[in-house]
Prior knowledge:
Elements (H helix, E strand, L loop, with lengths): L3 E3 L4 E6 L5 H12 L2 E7 L5 H12 L3 E5 L2 E7 L11 E2 L4 H12 L5 E4 L10 H9 L3 E5 L3 E7 L3 E2 L2 E3 L5 H11 L2 E8 L7 H8 L4 E4 L2 E7 L10 E3 L4 H13 L4 E8 L6 H8 L3 E10 L2 E9 L6 E3 L11 H7 L7 E3 L12 H11 L4 E4 L2 E4 L11 E2 L5 H12 L5 E3 L12 H8 E2 L1
Parallel strand pairs: 2-16, 3-15, 6-7, 10-12, 11-12, 19-20, 23-24
Antiparallel strand pairs: 1-24, 2-25, 3-5, 4-5, 7-9, 8-9, 12-14, 13-14, 16-18, 17-18, 20-22, 21-22
Helix pairs in contact: 1-2, 1-3, 1-6, 3-5, 4-5, 7-11, 9-11
Amino acid sequence: xxxxxxxxxxxxxxxxxxxxxxxxxxxxxxxxxxxxxxxxxxxxxxxxxxxxxxxxxxxxxxxxxxxxxxxxxxxxxxxxxxxxxxxxxxxxxxxxxxxxxxxxxxxxxxxxxxxxxxxxxxxxxxxxxxxxxxxxxxxxxxxxxxxxxxxxxxxxxxxxxxxxxxxxxxxxxxxxxxxxxxxxxxxxxxxxxxxxxxxxxxxxxxxxxxxxxxxxxxxxxxxxxxxxxxxxxxxxxxxxxxxxxxxxxxxxxxxxxxxxxxxxxxxxxxxxxxxxxxxxxxxxxxxxxxxxxxxxxxxxxxxxxxxxxxxxxxxxxxxxxxxxxxxxxxxxxxxxxxxxxxxxxxxxxxxxxxxxxxxxxxxxxxxxxxxxxxxxxxxxxxxxxxxxxxxxxxxxxxxxxxxxxxxxxxxxxxxxxxxxxxxxxxxxxxxxxx
Length: 434
Ligand code: S3P
C-alpha cells in the first residue's frame, strides 16, 4: 500500500511511450489461446489486468511465455481449451471476466470465474442474460455478480439488440458466437471500440459489419479456425491521455508521446481536447494489423473546458476521470452528462471524483449520471491526500491534477495504477520539470 507524493511542476517536456493497449492485449491473448500454433504478441500491455487474462488462458490450457512486454501464446485451436479445476481469477478486470464468460459459455466443460472485491460488485447480468438467450447455462451470485459458474452448453446464434453501448458485452457475444450454430448478430445502440472485430479478422475469422450490426458465423461447437499470428500491440491511448492532460495544463509544456493507438473508436478524446483548445498534433501515422498508430506532440495551452455528453460518452468512458480532474484548470469548467455507467466501473467513479476533487478545494456538483466541476474562477486547487478507492484511473487522474496544485498531493494506495500502467509515476516524474 505505497503512498505516492506529487509535487507541483512547472511544465512537461521530453518523450514518453505508453504501455501496450489494454483492450487490444486482452483480445490478442484470448484469441491466440484459441488459435492453432504459437502467436507472438509484442509490446503486450504491462497492465495487471492483461496478465490476469494471460493467467486465465494458461489455466485453460494455453502455453504462455512472458519476456517483459513480449508474450508468446500457444493455442490448440478453438476446440482445444480445457477445463480448469481451479476458479479462474480475473482480478480487477471487467474485460477479462466478461469476454471470457462469452468464450466459456459454449465449451464442453464447467468453469468458475471470479475476481477481486471490486470486480465482484460489478454487474455481470449484461452478459449473462444475452448468453442465456443463446442457450448458455450460467449461474451468478444474486443472478448478477461474480463468482460465475458456467456449465457445458450448445449455443445457438441470436440477433441481439444491446440495451446499452458496451464493447465488453458486444465482444462477449461475438466470442460466444464463434461457438454457436448459425449467424450471431449484435446491434449497438451507439458506437463502441471495435478491437474485437479487428482482432478476430487478424486471426482469420470473418466478421461482417452492416450499419450498427456486427455479425459472426459460428461453427456450432466445431470452430478450430483461428490462425496464430505475430502482432504488435499499439500504445494505450487511455494511458496516453494522462500525459496529454498533464502537458496541456502548463503553457510551457512540449511533450512527445510515441506509439499511441489511434483507432477511430478510441480517438474521440482527442476531439474533446481539441474542442477545448488543446494543442495536440499527430506527427506520424501508420497502420498495424488493422489498428492505426501514431506519435503525438502536445504543447501547453489554456484549456477552455466544456460539456461531454450523449453518444460521446461510450467513446471516452475511460478518459472521463482525467477530464473531470482537469476541470478546475479550465476556463469554464467541465461538465459530464449521461454517464451513469461511471458508477459501475472499477469504483463508483462519479463519487470518487467528487470526493477527491473537493478534498483539493474544487467546487463540484455531483449528479446521478455525471458531475459539473467549476473552472479556474473557483480558485486554484491545493494539494491533498487522495483516496483512489483502489481505482487505477482515479489514482492517475489525481496525480496529474496534483502537478498543477499548490502544495503537495499524496496518493494513497498508489500501486493500484498498476492495473493498467505499472510504471506510471516513474514516467510522469521523468517528464515533469520542476
Ligand atoms: C473495454 C470496454 C469498456 C471500457 C473498459 C475496456 C473493453 O467497458 O470501459 O475499460 O476492452 O472492451 P464497457 O464495455 O463496459 O463500456
